[in-house]
């Protein structure tokens, strides 16, 4: 069980919060467990969910590229909870993730994907990676608006995944009837 207890979901009466939790049940990214914890503070649940919708599901950057970066963050910060999830809206196949931690040496990734993953490295691991060479790569593949959205999304993703690790969440601890978004979910 998590370090912060799950609330009684049956006691939630806020219509918007209930809709957000239902979306987590149906879509799975973010999963119901993390959304249930966020629901303890409705403003946190609502603002996180709006940012997620606007920058991950929607937005100016291709959803598959953002899913690639999200999974990369999951694998590099070693968040087992998050790495076991996949966006139901993405078309990225599992074999595309096989060499993700060695993306620079792999021929599985386009130059645009490699630039996005290098940007993700700079944001998550070391801002010193953000040198003139990286920015030349980024400028060759992205508009300023795309860089703002992708950077913001990666920053939120990294922070949330690290927080979730500290909470020690497990899948199917709430709304156990849903496998939505789980890697091992039946097709």
Question: Your description of this structure?
Answer:
By secondary structure, this protein is an all-alpha fold. It has a single domain, classed as AhpD-like (Up-down Bundle). It contains 8 helices and no strands. Helix 3 packs across helix 8. The two termini are 27 Å apart.
Indicate the structural class.
mainly alpha
Order of helices and strands: HHHHHHHH
CATH level-two architecture: Up-down Bundle
Query: How far is the N terminus from the C terminus?
Result: 27 Å
Q: Determine the mean pLDDT.
A: 89
CATH topology: AhpD-like
Indicate the CATH class: Mainly Alpha
Low-confidence parts, pLDDT < 50 over ≥5 residues?
none
Beta content: under 5%
Binned, the helix content reads 40-55%
Q: What is the number of helical segments per DSSP (H or I, 4+ residues)? A: 8
Fold topology:
Layout: H1 15-27, H2 32-38, H3 42-57, H4 63-76, H5 80-83, H6 111-124, H7 132-141, H8 144-167
Give a short overview.
The protein has helices at residues 15-27, 32-38, 42-57, 63-76, 80-83, 111-124, 132-141, 144-167.
Name the descriptors.
single chain, mainly alpha, 187 residues, 8 helices, AhpD-like
């Amino acid at each position: 069980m998590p370090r912060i207890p799950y609330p009684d979901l049956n006691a939630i009466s806020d219509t918007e919060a209930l809709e957000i939790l239902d979306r987590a049940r149906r879509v799975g990214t973010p999963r119901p467990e993390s959304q249930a914890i966020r629901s303890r503070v409705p403003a946190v649940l609502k603002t996180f969910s709006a940012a997620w919708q606007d920058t991950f599901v929607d937005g100016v950057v291709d959803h598959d590229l953002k899913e690639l970066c999200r999974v990369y963050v999951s694998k590099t910060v070693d968040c087992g909870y998050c790495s076991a999830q996949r966006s139901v809206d993405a078309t990225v196949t599992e074999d595309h993730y096989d060499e993700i931690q060695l993306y620079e040496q792999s021929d599985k990734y386009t130059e645009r994907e490699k630039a996005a993953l290098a940007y993700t490295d700079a944001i998550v691991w070391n801002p010193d990676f953000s040198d003139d060479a990286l920015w030349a790569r980024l400028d060759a593949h992205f508009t300023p608006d795309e860089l703002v959205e992708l950077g913001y999304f990666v920053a939120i993703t990294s922070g949330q995944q690290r927080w979730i690790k500290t909470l020690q969440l497990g899948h199917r601890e709430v709304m156990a009837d849903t496998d939505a978004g789980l890697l091992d979910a039946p097709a």
